[in-house]
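We read letters as residues; the fold follows as tokens. Both lines appear below.
***
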Amino acid sequence: MMRSSDQQAFRGATPVEQGNPADDLRMFRRCLSQYGTGVAIVTTSDGTSRFAVTVNSFSSLSLDPPLLLWSIDRKSRSFDAFSSCEHFAVNILSSEQIELSRHFSSKVTDKFANVDWIPGRFGSPLLSGCIARFECSAEARHDGGDHLILIGRVQQLERYDGMPLIFSQGQYSIPLEHPDAPGEPAAMAAEKPNTLANNVLQLIFNAHHALSEAFEEHRRAEGVSIAVARVLATVYGHPGIKVDGIAAQTYLGQRDVEDAVVELARKSLLVHAQDGGMRLTPSGVALREAIGERWIAFQNARLESIPSSDISVLMRTLTRLIDPAAQERAATAAVSGG
């Protein structure tokens, strides 16, 4: 049996954190987040009301018979509906449905208002734009601690073209082809028109994730995770913001935002107002500005070999993608002398 020191040497790295999960549930959750999953919205109806929850606990279980499973938090407001339903539908989200994921995990009372859906074969809502949908009869339920495990027998399914939405390490992402995966060389793929490699939005995603990963050592040097860094930056830029607002600004999951807020408060980097709004303490402001200085130096080093004219074109293009009306406003201002 390996000694602890041998295990460390074998892995080639020191754990960021370790211990008994019973002593720190948030550490347990952070460790679980290292396993990337898809994102699904599970729906059901009792004939008069509709219910839905956003989950990443979905998993295939059996091909013959066709079974799948997922779990629901016993504290969920929809728990009673799903714990007794006869049917439910699993809607697998595409990479373009982050907002839909956040909407159905929010505290909105009528989650189906202004959402495009149709009733399925058994009455459970089927959401538009998903890349797969499974209509299930409730096969079995099992105790799962603070969750209830539901097993469904798939009665009807649909599959569509599209890229799945992924949730990993507390943030939304998309699947990318691994450079070491077997297949044709990346250079050959890049020459093909209309492939993922030549998709400008895909390249933006790739650049974002590559830069974020490269900057990770700087975050660690300041003692923060990516989730904590994003929450820190958001509260710094929007004093008085609340948890729901942070989730919308950062595209982090609600639980990951809450965990980051707890960690920042525990370290006396953040304080709560009576209305639930949050502000950074002087120490929090200093930490955010230190990370900001690191980011500026990192950015300058990355861009120093790129001509300024190329950077200007890139910035104009990204601005138009973020705000299509920006170019028109700029042109109007130029004509009017504004």
